[in-house]
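subagent[fold] <- orchestrator: predict structure for attached chain, return tokens only, no commentary.
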Amino acid sequence: MTTATTARGARPEDLLRQAHDGVYRWPAGARRRFDVVACRDGDEVAGVAEVAADGTIDIEIRGEGELARWASAETRMILDHRRANRFEDADGRHELTVDGDANEDGLLIRVGDSLQSTYRLDERGLINEISRAPGGRRFVITILDHQAAPGGTWLSHTFTVSHWDQGGLLNRVEAYRDRYEEIDGTMLPRERRMRVFREGGVETRTVRLDGGLATDGGAA
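subagent[fold] -> orchestrator:
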């Protein structure tokens, strides 16, 4: 591994910063409110989600049980990835190293954090794979399709998440498809459809969001 310049003529810090800044995010300072509906096998729960001007996310899902907990967690994840987020406050806090040379799968950058995170960048410098290892487990996000967004940025449109247990066995794969709507130059999440593949069968879940235009402060 090396912390020097890569074959692309740039330091890993510069490459990952460029990739980070290329992800579409909302400007800071605007409040947003979404109505949320989540479905699974005929069951449905609903609620609201709010993003405060400081980026704090508050979610209230009416109902109890696993579907309500999933709806809250999945909605938080969707909104968290759209919040303003400086590279210096994220992966830029850690030592970054390049693992080997770029190949047909991309260039692998390792992050010196507690999750043993890695990012793989394609020939355009876009993120096409993320790996993390929380609590001895491991999951890998593989981005299959990048959707163009305002300002030359991008969103992940379709992607998979593969999960390995502490023993190294693959025990679950999730396939995602996200849909966004552009209103006045702002990309707003409208639906996430997830299919879960694991021992025992396949399950489909969806979470839909309505609203989300800025209500005060900052740009849309």
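orchestrator: received. Logging for downstream: Residues 23 and 48 are 25 Å apart (CA to CA). The two ends are 42 Å apart (CA to CA).
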